[in-house]
Specification:
Layout: E1 2-3, E2 14-15, E3 20-23, E4 33-37, H1 44-55, E5 59-65, E6 74-76, E7 79-81, E8 84-89, E9 94-99, H2 108-122, E10 126-133, E11 144-148, H3 151-159, E12 163-164, H4 172-180, E13 188-195, H5 202-216, H6 223-227, H7 229-254
Parallel strand pairs: 4-9, 4-10, 10-13, 11-12
Antiparallel strand pairs: 1-2, 3-5, 5-8, 6-7, 8-9, 11-13
Length: about 260
């Protein structure tokens, strides 16, 4: 463990690998529901979480900083944006944690633990992870699957007739968060998974948001998401392509000087 030095205003004590949740100002999130969207199958989590913040006019309140994030920053309206951001909607008592950066496998365990620590510290009472799943055979596009962290969470999924994954494998930050929260019965936590079939699946994201509407009593219009799917898909795929190219160039540079003849 080492002291966090990522930000002057940071209130963190000790963290893994300098992972730090930085808030612009202290927020009272007691009793809030956290919506988590990290990159994964079909980018469903990131697309859904980002669209949710735009449609319900969430306020950006902070970000995650980490020494091991790739040195790639997205530019929006001429300004740089942190790739992993925190948003809040006080009206609906929702907080969204999303990332537009693929989380390195070596960082997944530490980021999952620090996310759970932050959730506990802020008094958040429910966690809903948004993700994609690839299924065998011709599944209905509107089908939504679920994985729960504990028995109470499982009952809530069943209440909304969400198909429970009885046996299978899951990976990434979402998977490790569910495992880490399994013994924490003070709040509900589960993952909603849309059926993804493309690299950036907006139809799966739209179906996922329809289910989120039912669970949280929201009124998110998914029609614009479907209509602008192609345009947004091209933009995100280019962003991820640039990220991959930058990582490859960085790895090549770090190998040191080379001689060519």
């Amino acid at each position: 463990m080492k002291k966090c030095k990522c930000h002057e205003s940071c209130k963190c004590n000790e963290v893994n690998k300098n992972i730090c949740f930085v808030e612009r100002e202290k927020q009272n999130l007691k009793g809030y529901t956290l919506i988590e969207g990290f990159p994964g199958m079909g980018l469903v989590g990131t697309i859904s979480a980002k669209y949710l913040t735009e449609q319900l006019k969430f306020e950006e309140i902070g970000h995650i900083e980490c020494d091991f994030f790739s040195p790639v920053i997205r530019v929006h309206h001429g300004l740089p944006m942190y790739p992993s951001r925190i948003y809040i909607n006080k009206k609906h008592k929702l907080v969204v944690l999303l990332s537009e950066q693929i989380i390195p496998s070596t960082l997944i365990n530490d980021l999952s633990k620090e996310t759970i620590n932050w959730i506990n510290k802020k008094g958040i009472t429910k966690v809903i992870s948004l993700a994609g799943i690839k299924t065998e055979g011709k599944e209905r596009r509107e089908k939504i699957y679920g994985i729960a962290a504990n028995e109470d969470s499982l009952k809530e999924l069943q209440k909304y007739n969400i198909e429970i994954i009885d046996e299978g494998l899951t990976t990434g930050v979402t998977a490790m968060m569910l495992l880490g929260m399994r013994k924490q019965h003070k709040f509900k936590a589960y993952s909603l998974l849309g059926t993804a079939s493309t690299a950036a699946d907006y139809m799966a994201s739209a179906e996922l948001l329809k289910t989120l509407n039912k669970i949280l009593g929201l009124n998110i219009d998914v029609k614009p998401l479907i209509q602008e799917a192609k345009k947004t898909q091209e933009m995100l795929l280019k962003h991820l392509g640039d990220l991959k190219k930058t990582e490859e160039n960085t790895e090549e540079f770090e190998k040191g000087p080379q001689m060519y003849t």
